[in-house]
Structure of Rhamnogalacturonase A/B/Epimerase-like pectate lyase domain-containing protein:
Amino acid sequence: MRSTLFLAPLLAAITRTRAQHDHLEIPEVEQYVHSMLGEFAHWTHYPGPSPTYWHHPSPRPTKPVPPRPTDQCDYWLADVKHQGIAAFNPSPNTYQVFRNVKDFGAKGDGVTDDTTAINNAVSSGGRLGPAQGGSTTVTPAVVYFPPGVYMINASIIDYYYTQLVGNPNCLPTIRAFPTFSGGLGLIDGDQYGANGLGFGATNIFWRQIRNFIIDMTLVPAGSSVTGIHWPTAQATSIQNVIFQMSSNNGTQHQGIFIESGSGGFMNDLIFNGGLNGAVFGNQQFTMRNLTFNNAVTAISQIWDWGWTYKSITINNCTVGLNMASGGPAAQSVGSVTFIDSSISNTAIGILTAHGPNSLPPSGGSLILENVVFSNVGVAIEGEYPTGNTTALAGGSFTVAGWGEGHSYKPNGPQIFEGAITPVSRPASLLQGGGKYYERSKPQYQQYSVQRFLSARSVGATGDGHTDDTAALQRAILAAKAQGKILFIDHGDYLVSSTIYLPAGSRIVGESYSVILSHGNFFNNINAPQPVVQIGKPGESGSIEWSDMIVSTQGQQRGAVLFEYNLNSPSSSPSGIWDVHARIGGFAGSSLQLAECPTIPNIVVTADNLDQQCIAAFMTMHLTKPSSGLYLENVWLWVADHDIEDPQLRQITIYAGRGLLDQSQSGTVWMVGTAVEHHVKYEYQFADTHTVFAGQIQTETAYYQPNPSAPLPFPYLASLNDPVFPNTTAVDGNLTIPAADGWGLRIVGSSDIHIYGAGLYSFFDNYSTDCSNQGNGEVCQDRIFEEVDSSGITVYNLNTVGAHYQIELNGVDVAYYADNLNGFVDTVALFRD
Ligand SMILES: *[C@@H]1O[C@H](CO)[C@@H](O)[C@H](O)[C@H]1NC(C)=O
Ligand SMILES: *[C@@H]1O[C@H](CO)[C@@H](O)[C@H](O)[C@H]1NC(C)=O
Ligand SMILES: *[C@@H]1O[C@H](CO)[C@@H](O)[C@H](O)[C@H]1NC(C)=O
Ligand SMILES: *[C@@H]1O[C@H](CO)[C@@H](O)[C@H](O)[C@H]1NC(C)=O
Ligand SMILES: *[C@@H]1O[C@H](CO)[C@@H](O)[C@H](O)[C@H]1NC(C)=O
Ligand SMILES: *[C@@H]1O[C@H](CO)[C@@H](O)[C@H](O)[C@H]1NC(C)=O
Ligand SMILES: *[C@@H]1O[C@H](CO)[C@@H](O)[C@H](O)[C@H]1NC(C)=O
Ligand SMILES: *[C@@H]1O[C@H](CO)[C@@H](O)[C@H](O)[C@H]1NC(C)=O
C-alpha cells in the first residue's frame, strides 16, 4: 500500500506556509492533501510491462557539428578553468561557486553510498539550506556530476540558488538503494521541516537541475518513492532528465512531485513507469517535450490556475492526464492548455471533473490543439467520479481543436464543450508537422573546451565593483571574432555604458552571471539607454544566450535592460534561454529594504515619490526593425521584496515598462515567460504580429494605486504608452482603482496567439484584502486590453483581482464574477 506518512509534514505545513506575499495557493494544497488521503485506492490493478532502460540520446546541435572530442564524455563545463566568484558574498575570494561532487568524495561507482559526499558538495561554504529558510543571492553554486552511477540512501537536499548539472554527453545516474528512505525525493528541492517547507515555494527562484538519470528501480515497486520534489517559483528549470521507475503491478513510484509554488518551466524529460509519472500542483507552469511511458497515470494534475503543455508524448498508460482532482463539486484544477502532443495506447486520455454542472463554474477549463490520439479507449472522460460521461470518444484520430469552459468570441460568456476552430497558425512560427517551433537551451556539449573563451580569462573581473564595461565588451567581440562561445564566469559585471552583442554571438553564463548597470549614462528618464543591446538596428543574423541575469544598481531612470534589434530569420531565430531581469532587492543593487521600504501610509505623489528607487525605464524592448526571437524561461522581475532579508520584507521599486514588442516583421516565441511589477504594463504588443506565447504570467505592482500607473514615468507616444484614467471605478459598494498597470495590452497588432495567461493583481496599496475571493472585492478595474487589433487568440486567460478580465476597444467584455474559478477567474477561449 502507498504510505501516506509523507503527507503529515504537508499538513503541518499548511498551518504555516501561508505565502508571505502574494501567492495564496494554500487552500488548493489543503484541498489536495485531504483528497490525497483517500486517493490511489482505485488503482489496485495495473498489469504494466517491465521497465524499459533508455540510453543517453545523441546531442542535437543547432550549429554545424565540429569533430567530437576524443573522449565521448568530455564536457567543457567540467574542463573549463573554474574561476567564477560570488561578488557580494562576505568572502568572495574563498567562496567556491563551482563544485565537482567527486572533489567531495562521491565515487559514482554504483556501489558506494554517495549521499553524504553529494550533500556536502551542495552545502559547503555557508550556503543557504532549507533548515534556515529565507532566500539569498550571495551563495550561488553549480554542483557538477561527472559520468557515473551515484548510489544514495537518503535525499540529496537542494539548497537555494543551486544548479545541479550532470554531464550531458554521458548522463550520470542517481540511483536509490533498495533501502532508500527518509525523504521526499531522490532530490528534494525544498525539504520539509517542523514548520513546513524550508523555502517558501513561491519564493524559490534561480535554480536548475539538468542532465541526469534518476533511477528508482531498485526500490521495491510497492514502496512510495519520488524522483524529484520540486515546489518552486519562477526562473527555475528541470531539463534533460530521465526518470526510471518500476512499472510492476502496484507500483508506488512517482517521477516528480510538486505541491505548491509559482513556476516555472521544464523540458526534455522522459518518465518510464510509475504510479504517476508526475504529480503537479502549482499556480502555473510551461512544460515542453515530456514523454511518459508505461505509467498508471502519466500526469496527475492535483491543482493549478493555468498550465501549458506542449509536445507531450504519452504511451501505454492507464490515464494520460488526470485533471479530475477535487471532483465535480470542488474541482481544484483551474485550467490546462495541451497542444502539439500525442496520447497512444492508453485507456483514458484525459480524465476531467468538468461537466455542465461542475463547480467552480469555469473550473477544469481545457483547450486542446493539434493532439494525436492513437488507440485510446476514451479520449476525454468527464464528470468523474459521479456519473462518468464520454466528452470525446476514443479511437485513433487527430484533434485539430477541442475545448470546454467559458468562451468570449468576442462576447460571452458562452458555456461550451466540443470541437473549436484551432488557431490559424502563421507558417513562420512552425516547424515540421504543423507544430510550433521549439528549441531547447543549448548546452554546447558537442564542443571541446578549446572552443570557449572565458570572460575572466580575458580581463573582465565580475567582482561587483570594478567597471567591466570595456573588458566585457572586448571579450564579447573577441569570442565572436574567434568563432568561440563566450563563457561568462559567475560574477557581477558592473557596466557604465551599453554592452553590445553582435549577431553571431553565443554566450553562456554560470549559474546566472549578472550584468549590473550603474551610473549617469543610464539615469536620464528622457534619454533611455540599453544596458544590453542585441544587434544594432538594421543588423541581421542571430545570437544564442543563456543562464544570465541583467540588473541595475541604484537609481537608473533611463535603463532599458534588454534592447533587441536583430533581424533574425524565422528559420534560425535568435534564442534566449534562462536569461532573466532582476531589478532591485538583492545584494549589490543598492535597492534593498534600507533604501526602498514600503510606505503604504503615505499618499505618494509626484512631489514625494522616492526618486532614488526608480530603477529602470523599461525591461525588454523588441524594437521595430527586430524580428525572429525565441525566448524560453525568461522572467523579467522588478523586486517586490528584499531577497536577502530573512523575513523577505516588501520594498518599493519603480520600473516603467515591462516587455514591449514593437517588431514590425514579428515572428516571436515566448515560451514560459513572466513579467512582474512594472508601472505601466507587463506585456505590451504594439503594431506587431506573428507571436506564439504561452504560458505568460504577470503581477501588477503591489504599491499601486499608491501611486497609480501614470507616476513616475512620463507618457511617450513613440512607445505606445497607455493613457490611464484618473478616476476610480464604482461597482455597487466597490470602489476600484482604475489606474493600475496593464498585465497585457495588445494595440494595433494581429496574429498574437497566447496559449495560457495568468494575469494577477493580488494587492492594492500592499493589502491583499482585494484579492481574497469571497469578499466580493477586486484589486484593479481592468487587466487585459485589446485595441485596434485582429486575429488575437487567448486560451485559458486566468486573472486574479481584476474587475474586468478583458477590455476590447474600450468596451468591458468579461466580468470577473461570470467566470469564477476558485482563486482565479477563467476564460477558456477568447477570440476577437
Ligand atoms: C495486481 O495486484 C493485485 C493486487 O495484489 C492483484 O489482485 C492482481 O491480480 C495483480 N494483477 C496482475 C496482472 O498481476
Ligand atoms: C540504508 O539505510 C538503511 C536504514 O535506513 C540501512 O539499513 C542500510 O544499511 C543502508 N544501506 C546502505 C547501503 O547504506
Ligand atoms: C526531447 O527530449 C528528449 C529527452 O531529453 C531529447 O532527446 C529530444 O532531443 C528532445 N526533443 C526536442 C525536439 O528537443
Ligand atoms: C507498449 O506496450 C506494448 C504492448 O504491451 C509494447 O509492445 C510496447 O513496446 C510498449 N511501448 C513502449 C513505448 O513501452
Ligand atoms: C468513472 O471512471 C473512473 C475511472 O475510469 C472509474 O474508476 C469509476 O469507477 C467510474 N465511476 C462510475 C460511477 O462509473
Ligand atoms: C494605503 O493603505 C494604508 C493602510 O491601510 C492607508 O492608511 C493609506 O491611506 C492607503 N493609502 C492610499 C493612498 O490609499
Ligand atoms: C490625468 O491627469 C493628468 C494630470 O493632471 C493629465 O495630464 C492626464 O491627461 C489625465 N488623464 C486623463 C485620461 O484624463
Ligand atoms: C458588497 O455588497 C455585496 C452584496 O451586494 C456583499 O456581498 C459584500 O459583502 C459587500 N462588500 C463589502 C466589502 O461590504
